[in-house]
């Protein structure tokens, strides 16, 4: 499986994603605060296939980690991917950070 890794520092970039690859997005998260990353809207060329949280090796209570999202291309084309860091129960007014990239899905 071919992985294309994207990090917070890639905000605003255009990512080239072959149809046979998986896009893996790494975003820092501290769930103990209630703020979690969530995909915003729908993409016409990507489908989220899984999500996981990787805790830091620091055993301290409330230590953060990394949210990792996996996306597979659905069809060739150009789309955007947006995520927001928020407390879902408080609604959009709680958004404290956003992440967005453009994705160009190419065949082969």
From TrEMBL:
Q: Which SUPFAM superfamilies match?
A: ICP-like
**Keywords per UniProt:** Protease inhibitor, Thiol protease inhibitor
Annotated ranges, domain Proteinase inhibitor I42 chagasin: 19-103
Is-annotated flag, keyword Manganese? no
Please give the Pfam families that the UniProt record associates with this protein.
Answer: Inhibitor_I42 (PF09394)
PANTHER family, alphabetically? AMOEBIASIN-1, INHIBITOR OF CYSTEINE PEPTIDASE
The name on file for this protein is Proteinase inhibitor i42 chagasin
């Amino acid at each position: 499986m071919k992985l294309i890794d994207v990090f917070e520092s890639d905000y605003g970039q255009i990512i080239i994603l072959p149809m046979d690859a998986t896009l893996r997005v790494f975003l820092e998260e501290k769930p103990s605060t209630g703020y979690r990353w969530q995909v915003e809207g729908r993409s016409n060329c990507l489908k989220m296939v899984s999500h996981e949280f990787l805790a830091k090796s620091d055993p301290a209570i409330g230590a953060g980690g990394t949210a990792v999202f996996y996306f597979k291309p659905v069809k060739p084309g150009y789309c955007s991917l947006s995520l927001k860091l928020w407390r879902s129960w408080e609604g959009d007014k709680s958004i404290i950070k956003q992440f967005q990239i453009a994705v160009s899905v190419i065949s082969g």
